[in-house]
Amino acid sequence: MTLETEDRKTFDAIVIGAGQAGLAAGYHLRRAGARFLMLEAGKVGDVWTRRWDSLRLFTPARYNCLPGKPFPGKPYHLPTKDEVAKYLRDYARHFALPVRENAWVRSVRQHGGGFRVELGSGEALETRSVIVATGANQRPYTPKLASAMAPQIVQLHSSAYRSPAQLPQGRVLVVGAGNSGAQIALELADSGRDVLLAGPAAGALPRRLLGRDIYDWIWHTLLGLTSGSALGRRRMDSHRYAADPLIGLSEDDFAPRRVRRVGRVAGTHEGMPMLADGSTVGDVAAIVWCTGFRPDYSWIELPIFGLDGYPIHERGIAVGVPGLAFLGMRYQYRIRSALLGGVGEDAAHVVAQMEA
């Protein structure tokens, strides 16, 4: 992996996060001739290698390209999580991006005419500008009612799930019926578990439509909607914490593979999950919470966040804090903004605005 080699403490820009959003920013900063540094809390690609073992992207390879480098393989291949991790590592090396790995950021605050970035090691760096590219999946969200479940129930968030071998034999309740929940539920059922999938149906799109992959139809239409359009704003507001539609799966796929659909989990009764209709799900050995993520910018000591925890911004440029920008957020500008192949457009805009 390319590491920072220059002995420098002051930069034009510091990019926090070297996932897909940070790497796209690094590409455009390199082209702009900026003096910059990228900080990654772990190693490039680790966020993907830590996902569950059988994970595959729903987006074909042709729609997973970062700027300047195509995703390898056939255009409609659905990459594994390890293929994504390798692509990110290769991307950083290919463009000789100055990534400092294992560099956890403790705080960001304004300092002089720029910013002071303090690392967990105690080292402090100064920069004219900061691009926060920590992505959409920051803090795993588990509802408070999880703490009221019986202690013998094994509970995992989807971010900690790897394979069925982690869970005891017996009934498993998967909470959250989006793509992650559906995929994990089917894998558990195929391993012989009695599986219940809880939550409202998220809708479904076929894998292919009129002889073409579904992404050929939705990439520039549904996923291309912007926050500047009335339709885009309406969809973003209504789906901020909702599951995305299933891709290539439908309700008809669950019953034949022994996944039973149940309603929303609303509480507990005597330590067991209770559904919204008042019924109790008994004999649960394990619960997998596929309930998404929430923002965590507590380390940024600047008055830039709304009541929902998200930064107040215009296409990623922080409002009222010159020199601060964000990348990789869900629905940042387009519906596809947080996707691997969607972040490049936002990165180009953010770097151009900050250079200006």
CATH fold type of the largest domain: FAD/NAD(P)-binding domain
Our measurement of the CA-to-CA distance between the termini, rounded to an integer number of angstroms, reads 31 Å
- Reading the helices and strands in chain order gives EHEHHEEEEEEEHEEEEHHEEEEEEEEEH
Q: Using the CA coordinates, give the radius of gyration.
A: 21 Å
Largest sheet descriptor: 7 strands, mixed
- How many domains is the backbone divided into? 2
Structural class: alpha/beta
Task: Summarize the amount of helix as a percent range.
Answer: 10-25%
Poorly predicted tracts of residues: 1-6
Number of strands: 22
The CATH superfamily name of the largest domain is FAD/NAD(P)-binding domain
* Count of discrete alpha- or pi-helical segments spanning 4 or more residues: 7
Mean pLDDT: 94
Label the overall shape: globular
Beta-strand content: 15-25%
Question: Could you describe the 3D structure shown?
Answer:
The chain has 356 residues and is α/β, with parallel strands linked by helices. The protein contains 7 helices and 22 strands. It has helices spanning 20-32, 46-49, 81-94, 179-190, 214-218, 230-239, 343-355, and strands spanning 10-16, 36-39, 99-100, 105-111, 114-119, 124-132, 139-140, 154-157, 171-175, 195-198, 204-205, 208-209, 212-213, 246-247, 259-262, 265-269, 272-275, 284-289, 293-294, 313-314, 317-318, 324-326. Helix 1 (20-32) crosses helix 7 (343-355). It is globular and about 60 Å long. 38% of the residues are buried. Residues 1-6 have low confidence and may be disordered.
